[in-house]
Amino acid sequence: MAGTPVTPVRLGVNVDHVATLRQARGEFDPDPLFAAQLARLAGADQIVLHVREDRRHANESDLRRLRDASSLPVNLEMALSPEMELMALSHRPERVTLVPEKRQERTTEGGLVLDKDFLGRLRPFVARCREAGIRVSLFMDPDPEMIARAEGTGVDQVEIHTGPYARAFGGPDEGKALNDLVSASERIHALGLLVAAGHGLTVFNLPSVLGLPRLSEVNIGHSIVARAVLLGMREAVGEVRRMLSPGAWGPLP
Ligand code: PXP
């Protein structure tokens, strides 16, 4: 299954956890917009931001600044709620990815359940987004039967929740978890929709995911931010160390 995809896969970089670090101090640093600019220079195709109901990391001001200052398309992850719809329609990201949201969860725990109530709210929402030029994706578990319910809703993409595969990676259930992703991709493609994947992806488990049929996009957040902290540590300490060297600074005037 591991292999190089036939067509280039788009990379969405989720900068939520840069905002998490900022929120730890409640000040301005590090700025997710700055992270987004660096991600663009490194080859990201889009920036992903999850504005949660409790604003624990990214907020509306981040979204506004991203729309104003970043040249990359924005994929806004959000719950299907009137408040978030208003936000999406006023900032018009290129894409909205609908996710289920629970206040107590640390991160998005599962995919959407497309029950009657949700589908009833989804169709008019998608129509309003389309009018505003926003494409809609659904974050879903690798469950072909549930995915089949996305048919006719007007969305153009399903993002497969790769969390279960990421958790199984390296263990006895990895093969089954990967097969589930393959079946999900095939079902999404059969519906005429784009196939995206995200959650828990790392440089270690990504190669197998890149072998998924018709994969067009991956969205990665936590592991990129985590590696950025570690890979940047040496440089960050080094610049302070150099400042402390004798003679690095002249006498005060
Ligand atoms: N895709 C979706 C829909 C998500 O909710 C998340 C987490 O915000 C991601 C991708 C990125 O997941 P991770 O931070 O584990 O890379």
Protein architecture, described:
It contains ten helices and eight strands. 44% of the residues lie in helices and 16% in strands. The chain has helices at residues 16-25, 32-41, 60-69, 82-91, 116-131, 144-148, 163-168, 174-190, 206-209, 222-244, and strands at residues 10-14, 46-50, 74-78, 95-98, 135-140, 157-161, 194-198, 215-220. The protein has an eight-stranded parallel barrel with strand order 1-2-3-4-5-6-7-8, surrounded by five helices. The chain has one domain (10-243): Aldolase class I (TIM Barrel), CATH 3.20.20.70. The model has no long low-confidence stretch (mean pLDDT 94). The chain starts with 9 loop residues before the first strand and ends in a 9-residue tail after the last helix. The protein has 253 residues and is of the alpha/beta class. Helix 3 (60-69) links the parallel strand 2 and strand 3. The chain binds pyridoxine-5'-phosphate. Pyridoxine-5'-phosphate binds next to strand 8 and helix 10.
Question: Which key terms come to mind for this protein?
Answer:
253 residues; alpha/beta; TIM Barrel; eight-stranded parallel barrel; 10 helices; 8 strands; binds pyridoxine-5'-phosphate
The tally of beta strands, per DSSP, is: 8
Q: Report the top-level CATH class.
A: Alpha Beta
CATH topology: TIM Barrel
Bound molecules: pyridoxine-5'-phosphate
Going by helix content, strand content and strand pairing, the class is alpha/beta
Layout of helices and strands, plus pairs?
Elements: E1 10-14, H1 16-25, H2 32-41, E2 46-50, H3 60-69, E3 74-78, H4 82-91, E4 95-98, H5 116-131, E5 135-140, H6 144-148, E6 157-161, H7 163-168, H8 174-190, E7 194-198, H9 206-209, E8 215-220, H10 222-244
Parallel strand pairs: 1-2, 1-8, 2-3, 3-4, 4-5, 5-6, 6-7, 7-8
Pyridoxine-5'-phosphate is lined by residues 14, 16, 50, 77, 97, 99, 107-108, 139, 159, 198-201, 219-223.
